[in-house]
Amino acid sequence: MELIIIRHGETDANTKGALLGWTDAALNECGIEQAKTASKKLRELKITNINTIFSSPLKRAAQTAEIISNELGHKNIIYSENLKERNFGNWDGLTIDEIKQLHENEYRLWMEDINYCMKNGEEVCNINKRVKVFLEDITNIPNTWNISNESFQTLQKVTKVGKETKAAKTFDEVAETTYIIVTHLGCIRYMIPFLLGMPDEYSWRFRVDNGSLVRVCINREGYAYLKI
After folding, report:
1. Same domain for 139 and 186?
2. 154 shares a domain with 100
């Protein structure tokens, strides 16, 4: 099985460095070109056995998915609420400088604890959970990575047992499946550690630019690896 995870194309908010959550912004001209470039890259990779394109329903992701769908001639898009970006509440659409000015105390708390939830926003644990629910549904990988205080080596052993006992049989049935997932930076940052059996704390170590692709392959034994 291969998952091709694509971050939506650029919006005007992205160019300003603003936090963009559930605000429904459209792609700008650069974002449209990025979506077309992603489609071209998929054609160059000769990926033809696409089963389904999944997408966040937010406009910037949906537009990206639709461009890719049209360019590849694949019309089956399924929209999932679990692929939406984190809701940033009162911070949505603001740049970091604006947040510092308008929400000084909250910003200080956020700097002290990256898991701090801004007013009217979404808890980090919630976006993390819904992303994992989505991936479990399409891959049958069990969520065994909720013990992030353990060592990475221990986590690897846990994921091996979980996959072998629950998922090995189903991977034989869907081994040649390819899914395209069009979503947001926040979601992708939690998807990669989950799929690779890494602690959630690793989520901030990944940079994923607008319109870029992340390829994750899952073999018949249920082990996942990045394909570069």
Report:
1. yes
2. no
pLDDT tens digits for 150-185? Answer: 333 333 333 333 333 334 334 444 557 899 999 999
Selected catalytic residue, list 85, 103, 122, 184: 85
The CATH number covering residue 11 comes to: 3.40.50.1240
Q: Looking at residue 48, what is its pLDDT? A: 66
What is the C-alpha radius of gyration for the chain, rounded to an integer number of angstroms? 18
Q: From CA 135, how far away is CA 152, in angstroms rounded?
A: 21
Tokens 């909250």 belong to 106
Is residue 210 within 8 Å of residue 9, measured between CB atoms?
yes
Range of the domain at 139: 2-87+122-226
106 part of the active site: no
CB-CB neighbours of 147 under 10 Å: 11
Judge whether 8 counts as a catalytic residue.
yes
Q: How does pLDDT run across 85-141, given as a tens digit for each residue?
A: 999 999 999 999 999 999 999 999 999 998 999 999 999 999 999 999 999 999 876
